[in-house]
Amino acid sequence: MTLRLTGTTALVTGASSGLGTAYANEFARRGIDVVLVARREDRLKALAAQLSADFGVTATAIAADLAAPGSAAALRAEIDARGIRVGALVNNAGFGLHDDFLDADPARTAEMIDLNVAALVALTREFLPGMVAAGHGVVVNLGSTGSFQPCPSMAVYGATKAFVLSFTEAVAYEVRGQGVQVLAVCPGATATEFRAVSGLHADRMETGSQTPAQVVAETFRALDRGRTGSMVSGRRNKVLIALGRIAPRRLATAASARMLS
């Protein structure tokens, strides 16, 4: 089984670097047009030009701050005005903060919730109905191994990713049998800009770290098999999450705190 996305376009948020760039590359490699969304317009335009040159697809760059109120509806209106039909949505935009809750900047914390949670929900609501009406489509929401247990020193970030996991699994169940795959992808440490942005410098996170290309390859293998709901990326991460599920929650919390310290 392979994805049915012919004649549609993949919308990738947070496309200017890391996992977003890797997802956009894979869609383009498969001959699927892409819409690239992030705040850094220069990077988006460079990536769009590269994908068009390398794979012959139409790559559209749209600079947007998805944490801003009304941004999802505005993005949908712009895409509709361009005559683009979105058949795949990758909600990758997001960031984390590595700090104790009481020490973290409240404004930055609120922005993180707006982007990691509110924007993801709003974008899914904007584009999922069209996929259901068409009888095919894909929504990929980026969770984390932090989705599965509390994350001391990254409390709000972990909670946003727990939301992503729960929300995605529930929506996947609601649209089952309608031809649309809704999948939460939960990677662990990945070689992206995430650690630099979040301020996380825990050396333990390097063990078992994946590249963006590895996470994306694993995602597409799951999608090609028709998987929905959720998946953990990386063999080591799968084992750790399985062990965490059977451990008492206080021990899982303590282990998470040690990993993030």
From TrEMBL:
Top-rank taxon, per record: Bacteria
InterPro entries the UniProt entry points to: NAD(P)-bd_dom_sf, Sc_DH/Rdtase_CS, SDR_fam
The protein's Enzyme Commission number: 1.-.-.-
Keywords: Oxidoreductase
Pfam families to which the protein is assigned, alphabetical: adh_short
MF (Gene Ontology): oxidoreductase activity
Cross-referenced PROSITE patterns: ADH_SHORT
Similarity section: Belongs to the short-chain dehydrogenases/reductases (SDR) family.
The name this protein goes by in its record: SDR family oxidoreductase
